[in-house]
Specification:
5-stranded antiparallel sheet, single chain, alpha+beta
Length: 375
């Protein structure tokens, strides 16, 4: 099964299955000398951990990280960093039925065809949302590296659930994004989102939404045209998160309704620095960062596992049958996806910053934070 590697210089290899022994990641290309230990990872794993809210799956996993290599005496060594989370609360009782009778909206059928039934289908295997533990473990390292070296700040939050949406957000409010289980920094809107989720859960259904991420202090010029532009690589990485069905930058799809005179971000001088008067491009021009905040929105579909009876096909009899999906599932992916989006974005930025030469192979203890290179 290929397709489990992301990055060229800051390289991430994801492994493990939802109901296997563990989910893990190997990161190669992190410089030596970065202060890093389990606590740096655990705080992000705790943010995506199941069973901590009535709006999350009730699977009770501790999700405790175990760093196996690449860290010594509290610093990265420059060697590959291997991290795992051991699966503890596994219940595979129902999944033999779904291997025979694929769940609508899941990858059960296509995976069975592609791998001729040899794939691990328990809990969805490699196609489960649980594999995003790899994103979070690697991303926590990337977040620490970007903050330490370049002062980059990555803030994702729940922008919309169903048709309830945060209209305007300030950077100060973003600091409060984890103050409630819906990861919405506006407490009034968060209450309205709760009402939507309560109604959806009472009916046995699910619902989708949008995560927006704001990235600050990214130096000018990160990205590699043509196929490795920042938008291109961010989009690919974000689509690796199960449930993502759309990614847009800046004005996004709204830009298709605009005229050039409205859309173009005019260059201006602020002090002795060139900046842009607006940010319709979302901080990226020609695949390169332009020094403005990078604004990305990620659309998540409704979770496929619902308790409402649905139609499927019995693959052994080739008869259409009814199926009711059992198990422990999220009614909405969005809140627990917020830290996953932050982590995924960080992986791509760390890779591109390394390619651009902004992150050296060794960070000495006296080095502190590097001075950013401006255009």
């Amino acid at each position: 099964m290929s397709g489990n590697v992301l990055g060229k210089r800051f390289v991430v290899v994801s492994f493990g299955e939802s109901h296997g022994r563990c989910v893990g990641v190997v990161v190669d290309g992190c410089p030596a000398g970065l202060p890093f230990d389990e606590r740096d990872v655990q705080k992000y794993l705790d943010l995506r951990r199941p069973g901590t809210s009535r709006y999350y799956t009730s699977r009770l996993e501790p999700d405790e990280v175990d760093i196996l290599s690449g860290v010594f005496n509290g610093y990265t060594t420059g060697a590959p960093i291997a991290m795992v989370v051991w699966n503890r609360d596994v219940d595979s009782d129902h999944y033999s039925e779904y291997h025979r009778r694929p769940r609508p909206g899941h990858a059960d059928y296509v995976a069975r065809v592609k791998y001729d039934g040899f794939n691990d289908w328990r809990g969805g295997g490699r196609f489960s949302g649980r594999i995003t533990l790899s994103h979070v473990m690697a991303g926590s390292l990337a977040i620490k590296l970007l903050e330490y070296v370049l002062s980059v700040k990555i803030c994702a939050y729940t922008k919309r659930i169903g048709d309830v949406e945060v209209d305007k957000i300030t950077y100060e409010k973003l600091e409060r994004r984890y103050s409630n289980p819906l990861r919405c920094p506006d407490p009034v809107i968060a209450k309205k989102m709760e009402e939507v989720l309560n109604s959806v859960m009472a009916s046995g259904d699910s619902i989708g939404g949008v995560v927006e991420v704001v990235i600050l202090n990214v130096p000018v010029g990160i990205g590699e045209p043509v196929f490795d532009g920042l938008e291109q690589d961010l989009s690919k990485a974000l689509f690796s998160i199960p449930g993502v069905k759309g990614v847009e930058f800046g004005a996004g799809f709204e830009s298709s309704k605009m005229r050039g005179s409205e859309f173009n971000d005019r260059l201006v001088v602020r002090g002795s620095t060139v900046r842009y008067e607006s940010n319709n491009m979302g901080g990226i021009v020609g695949g390169l960062s332009n020094g403005m905040p990078i604004i990305v929105r990620v659309a998540f579909r409704p979770p496929s596992s619902i308790s409402i009876p649905q139609k499927t096909v019995d693959l052994e009899t080739l008869k259409e049958v009814d199926i009711t999906v059992r198990g422990r599932h999220d009614p909405c992916i969005v809140p627990r996806a917020v830290p996953v989006v932050e982590a995924t974005v960080a992986i791509v930025l760390a890779d591109h910053a390394t390619r651009y030469g902004l992150i050296p192979p060794v960070l000495s203890k006296e080095y502190g934070k590097f001075k950013r290179r401006d255009s």
